[in-house]
Every structure is written in structure tokens, then in C-alpha cells.
């Protein structure tokens, strides 16, 4: 899996959570997944449709009601579900689960395994705007998932970022599955 797929996957808030739940054996029925997920109905249905569009989930033929279908993981979806489960396992608690639902959290951590400058992170993530990256870096630094320091030897001095603590665990989880 490349970084572009990780970016696409995390654009919907509940995508990782849905995949992780299905990896752990939660049945693919909407009501069961919704109850286990804790999401609102609208954002949950958008995440399901997004996963289906990415071909990570498919409707289980012959099961479920046409308005409430049952879903199952595709082959690629099973691999992504393992990744989602490892990412969730690396997250320390429920407060941090909200941080995982943010669109750029996991991709930023994935490319920040090693020390990187702002421009290097932006270059690896492609479609991220300066504002979105700046906000993500601030949020992850405040949550202590990212370290930030300034190298005074460089001219001009520029901040350097690297995944730390739970962020480093999430980054390693992504590396183990993708690398």
C-alpha cells in the first residue's frame, strides 16, 4: 500500500474504526457496526460508502435488506483492516481515538518516522495544503504524538518533526503492514 491509499482511506472519519471492528470479527451488518463504532448515522453511512467506493468493502450477496445491506471485506480490505487494527491498538486510549479520526493524522505520522522538515512532509503527502499540514503538525505536537525542534545549525533555522510516543507506535504499525 502506498501513501496515497492511506490518504484516501483516512479522508472519512470512521473508515479506520469500521475496518478495525470488522477485522476483530464484528459482523458486517450496519446496525451492529454502528453500535460498536459509536458514530453518528450520517458520518457512518458516508464512511461505509467511501470504503465500498475504495473497494475495501463489498455487499454480501444474498444477505441483508436492500436498504440495510450486509458488508464483507474484500481481499484488499482484509489487508487494510489488519492495518486499521494495528493503528487502533497503537493508540493509547479513547481520548486519542478522536485524533485518529482526523483526516491527515495517520498519513503525517506515517511519513514522519524519521526527522522531516515541513516541505519534506508536504512533498510526500502530495495533496495536503499548507494550512492543513500546519494544523495537523500543531495538533499532533500538542498531543505529544510528534516531536518538534529547531536545528540552530541550519541557515535559516527550520523546525524538524518526528513521530514520538503513540505517534511513533502508529508509524511503526503502518510500516509493519506496508513495508
UniProtKB/TrEMBL annotation:
Query: What Gene3D superfamilies does the entry give?
Result: Winged helix-like DNA-binding domain superfamily/Winged helix DNA-binding domain
Domain named HTH hxlR-type is located at 12-85, 103-174
Put simply, this protein is called Transcriptional regulator
Q: Which PANTHER family match?
A: HTH-TYPE TRANSCRIPTIONAL REGULATOR YODB, TRANSCRIPTIONAL REGULATOR, MARR FAMILY
Q: What is the species listed in this Swiss-Prot or TrEMBL entry?
A: Algicella marina
Q: Which InterPro entries match?
A: HTH_HxlR, WH-like_DNA-bd_sf, WH_DNA-bd_sf
Q: This protein's superkingdom?
A: Bacteria
Q: Which UniProt keywords apply?
A: DNA-binding, Transcription, Transcription regulation
Q: Which GO terms describe its molecular function?
A: DNA binding
Q: Does the keyword Transcription apply?
A: yes
Amino acid at each position: 500500500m502506498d501513501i496515497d491509499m492511506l490518504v484516501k482511506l483516512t479522508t472519512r472519519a470512521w473508515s479506520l474504526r469500521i475496518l478495525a471492528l470488522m477485522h476483530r470479527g464484528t459482523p458486517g451488518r450496519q446496525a451492529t457496526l454502528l453500535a460498536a463504532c459509536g458514530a453518528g448515522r450520517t458520518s457512518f453511512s458516508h464512511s461505509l460508502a467511501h470504503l465500498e467506493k475504495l473497494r475495501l468493502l463489498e455487499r454480501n450477496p444474498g444477505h441483508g435488506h436492500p436498504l440495510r445491506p450486509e458488508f464483507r471485506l474484500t481481499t484488499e480490505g482484509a489487508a487494510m483492516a489488519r492495518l486499521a487494527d494495528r493503528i487502533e491498538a497503537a493508540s493509547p486510549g479513547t481520548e486519542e481515538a478522536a485524533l485518529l479520526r482526523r483526516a491527515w493524522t495517520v498519513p503525517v505520522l506515517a511519513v514522519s518516522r524519521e526527522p522531516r522538515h515541513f516541505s519534506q512532509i508536504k512533498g510526500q503527502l502530495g495533496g495536503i495544503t499548507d494550512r492543513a499540514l500546519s494544523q495537523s503538525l500543531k495538533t499532533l505536537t500538542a498531543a505529544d504524538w510528534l516531536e518538534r525542534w529547531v536545528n540552530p545549525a541550519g541557515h535559516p533555522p527550520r523546525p524538524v518533526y518526528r513521530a514520538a510516543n503513540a505517534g511513533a507506535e502508529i508509524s511503526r504499525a503502518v510500516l509493519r503492514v506496508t513495508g
